[in-house]
Amino acid sequence: MNRHILIVDDDPKIAQLIEIYLANEGYMISKASDGLQALELMERDTIELVILDIMMPGMDGLSVCLKIRENKTTPILMISAKDGDMDKITGLMTGADDYMIKPFNPLELVARVKSLLRRTYYHTQPAQTQQDHLIRLQSLVIDKLTHTVQIEGRPIKLTPIEFSILYLLASHPGRVFSSEDIFEMIWKEKYYESNNSVSVHMSRLREKLIKEMDGEKLIHTVWGVGYKIEA
C-alpha cells in the first residue's frame, strides 16, 4: 500500500525536490505552503507522515506540530535551517519524531521517512498468538500489534518514537539501556556524542506516563548508565 505523505514548506523548490524523491519511491504526495493549509489537509485526508518546515510565514511549523499533536500521533519529520541544539530540542519537545537540518541530502531524508513509516506501521507479526504481543506492567498494557498503550483501560497517545522506546524498555524489565543503546536500536543509526534525541523523547514519554499514572514512575534513571523499567 502506498503511504500518503504531506510536505509542508513555503519554499516551492524544496517542496518539489522532496516530492520528486519520495514519488520515485512510490509514495502518494500532498503539499501545503503554509500551516493552515497543512492542518486542513490533515483533517480532510488520511495523512500517514508529515514533513514539516519550521520557518514559515503566519503559522510556523512548531505551532502546526503542537496542533497536530492535540489529537494525532502521525509521525512528523521536522526540517529547518536552524542547526542549534536548542532548536532541535524545541522541535522534538513539540512532538516531532525526527529533525533534519537544511540543506539536507534527499537520499538521507528518504531513509528517515522509510524508518519512521516502518517503525509506525510495519509492526504486525501474524505468527504471534493473541497474548504474545501484549505486555502488562502494573496498570499499563502495551499492544505491539495495534501499536496502542492503555493505562487502566484509558488509551495513551504516544508518538511512534515514544512507543518504540517504551516497548523496548518494557520488553526487557530490569535491564538498563544507555542512551546509545536506545538510539542505535530504535533509530538504526550510529550514536554520536551530544545527540540529545533520546533524552528529549524520554522526557516527553515519562511526562505522559507520570501524568496518567497519578505521579507513579514507571521508567527509572540509573544515573550515569541509562534507563530501565523495573521487573
What does this structure look like?
About 3% of the residues have low confidence. The protein folds into two domains: 118 residues, Response regulator (Rossmann fold), CATH 3.40.50; 96 residues, Arc Repressor Mutant, subunit A (Orthogonal Bundle). Helix 1 packs across helix 5 and helix 2 packs parallel to helix 3. The strands form three sheets. A five-stranded parallel sheet has the order 2-1-3-4-5, with helices on both faces. It is built from eight helices and eleven strands. Strand 4, helix 4 and strand 5 form a beta-alpha-beta unit. The chain has 231 residues and is an alpha/beta fold.
Short description:
This protein is 40% helix and 20% strand. By secondary structure, the protein is α/β, with parallel strands linked by helices. β8 and β9 form a beta hairpin.
- CATH fold naming of the largest domain: Rossmann fold
CATH class placement of the largest domain: Alpha Beta
Beta-strand share of residues: 15-25%
Radius of gyration: 18 Å
H and E string: EHEHEHEHEHEEEEHHHEE
Secondary structure blueprint with pairings:
Layout: E1 4-8, H1 12-24, E2 28-32, H2 35-44, E3 49-53, H3 61-68, E4 76-80, H4 85-93, E5 98-101, H5 106-121, E6 134-137, E7 140-143, E8 148-151, E9 154-155, H6 160-171, H7 179-186, H8 197-212, E10 219-222, E11 226-229
Parallel strand pairs: 1-2, 1-3, 3-4, 4-5
Antiparallel strand pairs: 6-7, 7-8, 8-9, 10-11
Helix pairs in contact: 1-5, 2-3, 4-8, 6-8
